[in-house]
């Protein structure tokens, strides 16, 4: 794993800008464009910023893992909530903390050698995830050698059971353990008072916070984790929660932003990333 030097110290500072949550309405992105070719998505109106001229590589980069899925449904693919979720999270890390952050994220498959260059990786829409034995071995080696994986946006019993079968290929000897509210990951930057559940934009705006679950056979939020041999958390799993939609859709609807993106989705995501970089 490449050293990030000053990043760790900066991450611990957790410096915030009170006015950085000011909402901007950038408008809808072309979802059909993403369906045709996820890589074709431009940055749109998401702000950018300059890197340190002397140390341009000394920064955090949001890295998303590409994967195969047995279904072509958009909600069960590697580019779920891509590209806005990754850009918006990078921007919020840049504005709300002292962390040096690259304005562009990266994506690559699990068997790409670049995997070991990034201490934090992200997967979304894993309800139909397919993993072969070689990929499972690579991912296990990455995670047991200091890497961290955040998994988000899959819902209900069926998707959990299918995901769990794939996870067992990586860790046949470990089971996900519930992450209690008292765990430092919920308090390292934002001091969260509950394990928030975030619905997608449609449910969040339709039910105005009265319903936050997406699949009726498992309504409760399920935050759990896998730990390595030193009891270091190496996989954080957000099941029955759509944090990525909270990041992606922050500018789509004022109610959704104020109810879910600002107080729930971004704080959890920022906490997880900061925890991954400092433990």
Helix-strand layout with pairing:
Layout (H helix, E strand, L loop, with lengths): L5 H8 L17 H6 L26 E4 L1 E2 L14 H13 L9 E4 L10 E5 L4 E2 L2 H12 L3 E5 L3 H15 L6 E2 L22 H6 L15 E6 L5 E7 L3 H6 L5 H25 L1
Parallel strand pairs: 1-3, 4-6, 6-9
Antiparallel strand pairs: 2-5, 7-8, 8-9
Helix pairs in contact: 4-5
What are the main properties of this structure?
279 residues, alpha/beta, Rossmann fold, two-stranded parallel sheet
Q: Please count the helical segments.
A: 8
Mean residue pLDDT: 88
CATH superfamily: Domain of unknown function DUF4159
Portion of residues in beta strands equals 5-15%
The number of distinct β-strands equals 9
Query: How many discrete structural domains?
Result: 1
Rg on CA atoms, Å: 17 Å
Principal-axis shape: globular
Instruction: Give the CATH architecture.
Output: 3-Layer(aba) Sandwich
Structural class: alpha/beta
Q: Characterize the largest beta sheet: strand count, sense, and whether it forms a barrel.
A: 5 strands, mixed
Report the order of strands and helices. HHEEHEEEHEHEHEEHH
Which parts are unreliable, with pLDDT below 50 for 5 consecutive residues or more? 1-18
Spatial order of the strands in the main sheet? 4-6-9-8-7
Distance between the amino and carboxyl termini: 14 Å
| CATH topological fold name | Rossmann fold
CATH class identity: Alpha Beta
Helix content: 25-40%
